[in-house]
Amino acid sequence: MPQIIDGKVISAQIKDEVREKVSQLKAQGKSVCLAVIQVGNDPASSVYVGNKKKACAYVGIESLSYELAEETTQEELLSLIWELNEKKEVNGILVQLPLPGHIDENEVIRAIDPKKDVDGFHPQSVGALCIGQPGFVSCTPAGIIELLKRSGVEIAGKECVVIGRSNIVGKPMALLLLRENGTVTVAHSRTKNLKEVAKRADILVVAVGKPKMITRDYVKEGAVVIDVGIHRNENNKLCGDVDFEDVSPVCSAITPVPGGVGPMTIAMLMYNCANSVSLQ
């Protein structure tokens, strides 16, 4: 049986470490405050925002919540972001995505002060990651690196394949694996011979957005498989991009869905919030 990489346990460790750091900051008279903005009431977004508030309460970070109507204009949203950029007591600003269709997400992300960009999506944060400068790193890829390290998986010198090239997961994931001295290939829906490419991987990270697409034909014997996808199947049960039952027997370690990558995203958001104080 493969090692099951437990994101619940590892995310709890990280939140406890952040809680300790926040209490040390408070002892120095420094508080940490995260502002979360949600436009509209997309049910999945509401669940995420609720989980973020709970995590803030647990680690001792103050959270400000701005729940805006679906018909909020782009100008109104940008005006709120600029106001929060100016507020010294606000350390982190997070705009819950996706936004309603009439709002340009890129413009909104660019409006956030890079020093408060705890999601790590601002072009300046991404550029800093590219050239190895300090800055915020997108929470999901940062969480995956922690999952690997804390599960005893060596990255240096390993063949790493990332399937997916999104700005939020695929691209920063590749850069972080490179930073850890992995040899990295980024594959995607247009990659020729995808199975052969994936089968080279010692570490396979899947963020392709298709339920159970990755079967054992894509996985090298003994590989470590990280599944970023989350979907509901025909029986309304959660599943990932990887066919867990099919792939488990051939890999050495694998993340489950749920309970793998998911909990890490919020843990790393808390980590970024605590670190925002020193960046500012």
Q: Could you walk me through the main structural features you see in this protein, from its secondary elements to its overall organization?
A:
With 280 residues, the chain is an alpha/beta fold. It has 2 domains: 29-115, Rossmann fold (3-Layer(aba) Sandwich); 139-262, NAD(P)-binding Rossmann-like Domain (Rossmann fold, 3-Layer(aba) Sandwich), CATH 3.40.50.720. It contains 10 helices and 11 strands. It has helices at 7-27, 43-59, 74-86, 105-111, 123-131, 139-150, 170-179, 194-198, 244-247, 262-279; strands at 3-4, 33-39, 62-68, 92-95, 159-163, 183-187, 203-206, 224-227, 231-232, 238-239, 253-254. It has a 6-stranded parallel β-sheet with strand order 1-11-8-7-5-6. A 3-stranded parallel β-sheet has the order 3-2-4, sandwiched between helices. The longest helix is centred in the N-terminal third of the chain and has 21 residues, at 7-27. The chain is globular. The N and C termini lie far apart (46 Å).
Give a summary of the structure in a few sentences.
This protein is α/β, with parallel strands linked by helices.
